[in-house]
């Protein structure tokens, strides 16, 4: 019911019948358009007039006409019905994943070239979904997915202790690259073995912000029987690249960091194990239809490198 005052209550059906009579010009025509009996129309309109305490139609002539009060009420009734219809359509679109809100997390070193294309395509296909795009390092994304700040994250693999509350699937496998100054002794190589870097100074992404990447580099070095000499650490990949360019050492970064540019070289790291995964993650407790729409489209962008 629609409350119009302290004591008055009017159902949407009253408004529908009233508008039908007003726009068709008669009770009989309104009844036929709504596929109900004329007596039902007359009864509902009479009840409506009783509820609001005013006559809406002038019935003294052969053809009924709206009273002055009826003209005023018609405008409000049509607006109310339109608003109700709009609300129903919004709910239906929400249930089908065509309308809603989504907060998408990403990190610069992992966005690569796919991310802008994916976002543009989603906005084109689902213009009624309000997207917010948030840059966050992987470890922050995990917390944000848990507390609802983010709905979906493009991040590194979820730690085992969080896999009970978050869901994820592999989105792409990125090859690892050695980042070198252009005048480095290995600059002319097509690819580099990790063992060739044991005497180098390493610039690393901080483990607290990028534990997957940090641990991967440590593991690759350990498999080559040495521990890396870590000269500096940085919070984000762009800072790592800047430090390499400044001559502070070399780095190992995934493929997604190559678009960061800079006056440095990205040379492939040898070995089948020189890869790191990126995943798309979400909280199953908060997943709605609009999440599924985004995930369905994102899977079409899934690649392996």
Topology record:
Layout: E1 2-3, E2 9-10, H1 12-24, H2 27-34, H3 38-52, E3 57-58, E4 65-66, H4 68-95, E5 100-106, H5 108-111, H6 114-125, E6 129-135, H7 138-147, E7 152-155, E8 167-181, E9 201-205, H8 211-223, E10 229-234, H9 237-245, E11 251-254, E12 264-268, E13 275-282, H10 289-298
Parallel strand pairs: 5-6, 5-7, 9-10
Antiparallel strand pairs: 1-2, 3-4, 7-13, 8-11, 8-12, 8-13
Any descriptors?
23% strand; rod-shaped; 3 domains; two-stranded antiparallel ribbon; 305 residues; D-Maltodextrin-Binding Protein, domain 2; alpha/beta; Arc Repressor Mutant, subunit A
Could you characterize what this model shows?
With 305 residues, the chain is α/β, with parallel strands linked by helices. It folds into three domains: 94 residues, Arc Repressor Mutant, subunit A (Orthogonal Bundle); 97 residues, 3-Layer(aba) Sandwich (D-Maltodextrin-Binding Protein, domain 2), CATH 3.40.190; 100 residues, 3-Layer(aba) Sandwich (D-Maltodextrin-Binding Protein, domain 2). Helices cover 40% and strands 23% of the residues. The protein is built from ten helices and 13 strands. Strands 5, 6, 7, 8, 11, 12 and 13 form a seven-stranded mixed β-sheet that branches. The protein has a two-stranded antiparallel sheet with strand order 1-2. Strand 1 and strand 2 form a beta hairpin. The N terminus is likely disordered.
């Amino acid at each position: 019911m629609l409350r119009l005052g302290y004591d008055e209550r009017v159902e949407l059906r009253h408004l529908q019948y009233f508008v039908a009579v007003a726009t068709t010009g008669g009770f009989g025509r309104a009844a036929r358009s709504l596929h109900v009996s004329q007596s039902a129309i007359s009864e509902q309109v009479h009840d409506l007039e009783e509820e609001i305490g005013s006559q809406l139609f002038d019935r003294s002539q052969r053809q009924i006409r709206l009273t002055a009060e009826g003209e005023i009420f018609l405008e409000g009734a049509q607006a109310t019905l339109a608003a109700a219809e709009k609300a129903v359509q919004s709910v239906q679109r929400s249930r089908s994943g065509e309308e809603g809100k989504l907060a998408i997390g990403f990190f610069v070193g992992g966005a690569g070239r796919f991310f802008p294309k994916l976002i543009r395509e989603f906005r084109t296909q689902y213009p009624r979904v309000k997207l917010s795009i948030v840059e966050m390092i992987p470890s922050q994304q995990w917390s944000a997915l848990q507390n609802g700040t983010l709905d979906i994250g493009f991040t590194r693999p979820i730690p085992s202790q969080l896999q009970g509350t978050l869901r994820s699937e592999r989105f792409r496998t990125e090859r690892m690259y050695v980042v070198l100054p252009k005048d480095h002794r290995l600059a002319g190589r097509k690819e580099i073995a990790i063992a060739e870097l044991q005497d180098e100074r390493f610039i690393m992404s901080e483990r607290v912000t990028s534990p997957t990447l940090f641990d991967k580099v440590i593991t690759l070095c350990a498999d080559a029987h040495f521990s890396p000499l870590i000269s500096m650490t940085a919070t984000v990949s762009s800072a790592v690249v800047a430090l390499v360019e400044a001559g502070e050492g070399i780095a190992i970064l995934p493929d997604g960091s190559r678009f960061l540019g800079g006056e440095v070289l990205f040379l492939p790291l040898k070995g089948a194990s020189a890869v790191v995964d990126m995943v798309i993650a979400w909280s199953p407790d908060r997943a709605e239809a609009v999440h599924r729409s985004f995930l369905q489209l994102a899977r079409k962008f899934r690649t392996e490198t």
